[in-house]
Each structure stands twice: as structure tokens, then as C-alpha cells.
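Notes from the 1:1 (GR / supervisor)

We went over the backlog. Supervisor wanted to see one worked example end to end before approving the batch request, so GR pasted a single chain during the call. The sequence is below; no edits were made to it. Supervisor asked that the structure be written out right there so they could see what the output format looks like.
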Amino acid sequence: MRYFRLLVLGNGISAYGSYLNMVALNVYVYDATSSALAAGLFMAVRLATSVVSGWVSGRLVSVHDRKRLMVGADLGQAAALLTLLIVPDAGRVGLLYALAVITGGCSTLSQVALRSSIPEIVGAEHRVRANGLLVTGRSLAMIAGFASSGLVVAQFGYSVAFALDAATFLVSATVLFLLPVRTRAATEGEGGGPAGSSGAARWTARMLLATAPVLMAMIAVRAVDGLGSSSHNVALPIYSSGLDPAHPATFISQFWATWAIGNIVAQQVVGRVTRKTGRTPGERAFALGACVMSAGFILVFSGLPTVPAVIAALVAGAADGFTEIVYVSRLQTAPDAQRGRLFGLSASAENTGFGLGMLVSGALLERFSPLQVVAAFQGLAIVLCTALLVALTVRRSRDGALPTRTAPRDAPAVKEGQG
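Structure output shown during the call:
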């Protein structure tokens, strides 16, 4: 864990750059083109690249050195931003969509590679704690990135913002390159190759056949969570403006700050409970946490007074952090050979849900209130999670009534922390 804390620091710095980058680039596209359509197309290209990159990244991290892939992803984003800096203003607009492809693809590749590597870096027994630290670092980075982006652009201009973005990725790449960490199981090769690739493909098919009902349901929940997340992201500025037209940013700031605090609290609680009990929360805990998270987000938009609304945001943030930790930790129980493909599939599903939700929720908010839109999307997540809970309960009752059977030697671990 000593080296991993440095990795978390580097990852948090690059995450800060990603969030700063997200705001600064979106605003720059609009300022440079004076076109809302161009700004929307830039976001669409970036999201579409993230969806496609999930499938490609899963294959790449299964057959290539994950540490090198993460370093390369950070360097790729830094190089793209530095290229944008040195190109004259008149030529920057043409590079923006190439930049959207590079940043969308590299960020997804880095995320898939890192999540796949955690059990090998810290050991399977420490993965929950490690995932919690990553959630905390990313939450703090998100708040810092969103909070400082407007100030950086307003006070120093886009060039300084892009240079700062590039610097964060260079710092992250340097930290990763210098850390003596192993990102792949010791029994597997680092270079992949045709034989390794076909072996990983066979493993993937066998694993999905063995665990598809549970893992596919969890990934589906995450996709629907992406829909719900997009709805409150789009609805939040509208809802905040309705609460206080003179200071529309006030409630947004309160919401995200409280959400981040909830994420940090979740990391602390899950880490302590896991160390004390030696058990990892499992699928049922994931489904329950997702229900609480969705209900919390609905309450935030229900017109509650400030204090209850902040408490609801705190609960939603804590449940969001909890489900993230449990979900990632559960997928990390899969054998190393197909862990990357699972996380690639997960990234594609989550980004697809988020992108589709951005489009649909934006259109629905033209006719319906923020509460109605958020309740519809988050309510769908609650229905799906409830169905998963029922299925898990039925399966547990059925398995308890059957004689104990020895699991196949190659089957991934599925019994850890069932609730």
C-alpha cells in the first residue's frame, strides 16, 4: 500500500486535469465556434469515443503491459493538449475533434487498465481499501477541477488552462513510470501475443457462461445508473436556477461538495468494516446501495428545504461511493486473464448509459420538471435493483436448499461477501 498511495496521488492529479479539461475545453469550443451545435458535437464525439474505447481497452489491457498503457494514455493526453497550445488560434478549431477522440479514448483506457490492475498492485485482500482510496481521490479531484476551472479560464485564459491540464497528465505519467508496481498476475506474461489473446477470449466466454446472470445484471445496473447520473447532471443547473435565480451556482456548489463528502465517508466506513470483519460487501449490498443512492438523488430534487436537501445529497454521495467500491471490488474477483475485458465492457455500458441519458434527459427537460425527469431515470434504476435483489434472494434460497457441490477449478470467485 505504500507505493499505492503515491499512485492514488498521481491518479488524483490526472483526474483533476480531466475535470478541468472537461470544463475548459467545452467552454472553449463554444467560444471559438459560437455554436451550441459544435459544442454538443464535441461532447458527443468524446462520449462516443469513450464507448468504443471500452471494448478496445478491454482487449488491450488483457494482452499488453498495463503500466505502460496507463503511462501512454497520460502522455497521449498531454501531447494532444500541448499540440493544441502550439497551434495558432486560427488552426485550433480543426484539432478540437481529434482532441475529443484522444482524450475520450485515453481516459477510458487508463481507467480500465488501473481497475484491472488493483488486485495485482495491492493484493486481492486489500483491493476494497485501495478502491476506496481511488474513489476519495477522484471525488476530491472532481470538486477541485470544477471549482477552479472557471477561475483559471477567467483569470489566466485558455492557454494557461490547457498547459495546466497537460502538466497534470505529465505528473501522473511520471509517477506511474517511476513506481515499482506489478500490474499483472505473476503467472502470466506481460506481452500477450496471439496465444495469450485467444486464451483470454476463451476465458472470457467461460466466465460469462458461469456468472452471466449476476455480473451482467450488475453491469446493466451500472448502465442505468449512468442514465440516472446524466439526468441529475443536466437537471441540476435548471433546478438550482429555480431555487435562487440571482445565485444559481450556490446550490450546485453545495450539492457537489456534500456529494464528495459522502463519497469520502463511504470510503472510510467500508474500509473500516472490511478490515474489522474480513468480509467484502457483495451483490446484495451493491443492489441495496444503488437503491439508496437513486432515492437520495430523487429527494434532492423534491423541493426540500436546504438542510434536508443537503442531507439527502450527503446520503446519495455516500451510497454512490459505496456502490462504486463494491462494484469494482466484485469485478476484480474475476481471474486476471479477463478482468480487463470485464472492465472494458463495464466502461462501455456506463458511458453508453450516460451519453444516452444526456440526450434524452435534455430533451425531456424541455417539457417536464427536473423532479419528474430525475425521478423517472432514477426510478428505473430502483426497479432494476429491486429485481436484482429478488433474483439474488431466490438464488440464495435455492442454493441453500441444494447439496453443496465443488465448484469447477477454473470458475471465478462468486461467493465472496454475498451481502
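Supervisor's comment: The longest helix spans residues 194-243.
Batch request approved.
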